[in-house]
UniProtKB/TrEMBL annotation:
<dbReference type="GO" id="GO:0016787">
    <property type="term" value="F:hydrolase activity"/>
</dbReference>
<dbReference type="InterPro" id="IPR002591">
    <property type="entry name" value="Phosphodiest/P_Trfase"/>
</dbReference>
<protein>
    <submittedName>
        <fullName>Predicted phosphohydrolase or phosphomutase, AlkP superfamily</fullName>
    </submittedName>
</protein>
<dbReference type="InterPro" id="IPR017850">
    <property type="entry name" value="Alkaline_phosphatase_core_sf"/>
</dbReference>
<keyword id="KW-0378">Hydrolase</keyword>
<dbReference type="Pfam" id="PF01663">
    <property type="entry name" value="Phosphodiest"/>
</dbReference>
C-alpha cells in the first residue's frame, strides 16, 4: 500500500529566520539547511504587526481580520460589555477542509485556532496553546488512541510573571519532547495511507521564543553557568524541531514541501504593563478608563504569582476567562468610561465606548474622533526617561490599517504599536505633559516573556517543479491559495490571496 503525502505543509510557528540560519551554519539544523539549499525562500507580509493573534485564521481562510473579526482568544463583546472567548466557528473554515470536501485525503495536526474537526483525519488543540477548545480529533477514536500511546495533551498554561531558571528548564524540555511526540503521531498516521496533504504545526519555536529568548524574563540575576545554559535553551528547541522535521519528511516522502512561519520573534517590545497608566494620565485621571479597581489590583499583585497561577489553573476554562475579564473590566461605570484597554499580548488594543455600538456606550461619533486624536497625541509624547527615545512608534485607527470587512466592528478601534527597542531596558518613561511612569521591573520584562512577535513571516518551498533560490514575496493570505493550486484545486472566490506559484507540472 502506498503511504506518505503529495504536499507537506509544515508550520515552524513564529520561527526567527536569523536564528534558523545561524543554526544551519553551525550544523544544528541540517534538515532546514538542506531544504533551503534547493528550495525557494520568500518573505511574507501580514497584519500580524498590528494584530498578532489574527494571523492563523487569516492564513487558513485567506481573508483579512476585518472579515473574520478574530484577533485574540478573549475578545470584547459590545452586547455583554465584557471579555469573552469567541465562538470557534467565528474563525472560519480552514482551507484543508475544502480539500477533504473535494474528495482529497488530508492529515492535519495541531493547526492553531482550527475549530474542532468533524471529518477527515485531524487533531486540534493538542500541543499548541493557540486553541479556543480542548483537544479534539477525527475520526472518532483517534484522540483516545493518541492519548493511550502518548498520554494526555501536553498543553500547559503559561504563568505571566518573571520566571525561575527551573521553570525555564522545564519549559525547554517540554518543547523538545513535544517536537518528537508530534513527529511520532504523524509517522503513525502517514504509515496507514498516502494522503494528498499533510498540514502540521511545530509549536515549540513559538512558545520557546516567548520564554527563552534571553534572560530578561528571569526573576533573578542568573549565574554565569545559568546564563550559558539559557543561551542554548532556545537553540536546543530549534534543533529538536529540525530533527523532528527530518523524521516527518522521511515518513511523508512528499513530492513538495512548504515550510512557513506566519510571523517571527524577537526581544519583547510590549509596554502593555504601563498602557493603562499612560492612558489614565492622558485622560487626566478624571475618567473611569482604567477602572475603579486600581487598589484591588494592587492587592492582587501582592499575592505571589505562582500561587495566583496555581489557583487560576485549577479552575474550569470558562471561569478562568471570566476572571481575566473581571480584572480588565469589572466594576466599571460605563457612562464614565470612554475607552478601555482590551486583553492583549503585544500591540495595545483600545476600544472606544461608542453609543451606537456598545450596549452601554456613551460616545457620539464626533466625541470619539476627538478622543482618538487626544489619545494618539498623548501616547506619542511618552519617551524613555534616559535616552529620550519614543515609546510608541504609532497609534493607528483600525480602519487605517485594515480593508473594510463585515466584522471590522469586532476589532479594537485604536492599535498601539510600540517602539522596536526592548521594553526591559526601561527604568521609567516620561512625558513633558503627563509626567513620569516607572517601569515595574527595570532590566526585566514583568510578563516573564523575554521574546515577542515580529511582523514578518516567510515560506520555504521545495519540490521538483518548484523554483529554487529567491522566491516571490507575498502575504500570508497567499499560502492557502498556493497549496490548493498545487493540489490542482481552484481556490474559493472568497479567498483574498493569490497563488505564489503556478499549478504543478502534469
Amino acid at each position: 500500500m502506498s503511504t506518505g503525502a503529495r504536499v507537506a505543509l509544515i508550520a515552524l510557528d513564529a520561527a526567527d529566520l536569523d536564528l534558523l540560519d545561524r543554526l544551519v551554519d553551525e550544523g544544528r539544523a541540517p534538515v532546514f539547511g538542506g531544504l533551503k539549499a534547493k528550495g525557494a525562500l520568500g518573505r511574507l507580509s501580514s497584519w500580524g504587526g498590528w494584530l498578532p493573534g489574527s494571523v492563523w485564521p487569516t492564513f487558513f481562510t485567506s481573508t483579512p481580520p476585518s472579515q473574520t473579526g478574530f484577533h485574540h482568544y478573549l475578545q470584547w463583546s459590545p452586547d455583554e460589555m465584557s471579555m469573552r472567548r469567541p465562538d470557534p466557528a467565528q474563525v472560519g473554515t480552514p482551507f484543508w477542509r475544502h480539500v477533504t470536501a473535494e474528495g482529497g485525503k488530508v492529515i492535519a495536526l495541531d493547526m492553531p485556532f482550527a475549530p474542532a474537526p468533524t471529518s477527515g483525519t485531524e487533531l486540534t488543540g493538542w500541543a499548541t496553546l493557540d486553541s479556543l477548545e480542548p483537544p479534539h480529533a477525527s475520526p472518532p477514536g483517534l484522540l483516545e488512541e493518541i492519548e493511550a500511546r502518548h498520554g494526555p495533551s501536553p498543553r500547559v498554561a503559561e504563568m505571566h510573571a518573571l520566571q525561575s531558571m527551573a521553570a525555564l528548564r522545564k519549559l525547554r524540555d517540554e518543547q523538545v519532547a513535544i517536537a518528537g511526540m508530534l513527529a511520532q503521531i504523524a509517522e503513525d498516521l502517514l504509515a496507514r495511507e498516502r494522503v494528498d496533504l499533510l498540514a502540521m504545526t511545530f509549536p515549540g519555536l513559538h512558545r520557546g521564543g516567548h520564554w527563552l529568548w534571553d534572560e530578561t524574563g528571569l526573576a533573578s540575576e542568573p549565574t554565569s553557568a545559568e546564563r550559558a545554559e539559557l543561551a542554548q535553551a532556545l537553540p536546543e528547541v530549534y534543533a529538536a524541531t529540525d530533527a523532528a522535521l527530518g523524521r516527518l519528511l522521511d515518513a511523508a516522502q512528499p513530492d513538495e514541501v512548504i515550510l512557513f512561519s506566519l510571523h517571527g520573534m524577537g526581544p519583547n517590545t510590549s509596554r502593555l504593563e504601563i498602557l493603562d497608566e499612560m492612558l489614565h494620565r492622558v485622560l487626566g485621571g478624571a475618567s473611569d478608563a482604567t477602572g475603579p479597581m486600581r487598589g484591588i489590583e494592587r492587592l492582587r499583585q501582592a499575592v505571589p504569582a505562582e500561587l495566583r497561577h496555581r489557583v487560576k489553573d485549577s479552575l474550569p476554562t470558562a471561569l478562568q476567562d471570566r476572571l481575566t475579564g473581571f480584572w480588565r473590566t469589572g466594576g466599571r461605570d460605563w457612562q464614565s468610561t470612554p475607552v478601555l484597554t482590551q486583553v492583549a499580548d503585544l500591540t495595545g488594543y483600545l476600544r472606544l465606548n461608542l453609543a451606537d455600538r456598545e450596549s452601554q456606550g456613551m460616545l457620539s461619533p464626533e466625541a470619539a474622533r476627538d478622543l482618538s486624536e487626544r489619545i494618539i497625541d498623548g501616547l506619542a509624547s511618552f519617551a524613555d526617561a534616559d535616552t529620550g527615545a519614543p515609546v510608541v512608534r504609532r497609534t493607528a485607527r483600525i480602519e487605517d490599517v485594515l480593508p473594510p470587512g463585515e466584522n471590522l466592528r469586532m476589532l479594537p478601534d485604536l492599535l498601539v504599536d510600540w517602539a522596536e527597542s526592548p521594553a526591559a531596558l526601561h527604568r521609567a518613561v516620561v512625558s513633558p505633559e503627563f509626567g513620569t511612569i516607572d517601569w515595574p521591573t527595570p532590566g526585566r520584562h514583568p510578563s516573564g516573556r523575554a521574546g515577542n512577535h515580529r511582523a514578518g513571516g516567510f515560506y520555504l518551498a521545495c519540490g521538483c517543479s518548484l523554483p529554487s533560490g529567491a522566491g516571490p514575496g507575498g502575504d500570508i493570505l497567499d499560502l492557502a491559495p498556493t497549496v490548493l493550486s498545487r493540489l490542482g484545486l481552484t481556490p474559493p472566490a472568497a479567498m483574498r490571496g493569490r497563488p505564489l506559484f503556478g499549478s504543478p507540472d502534469p
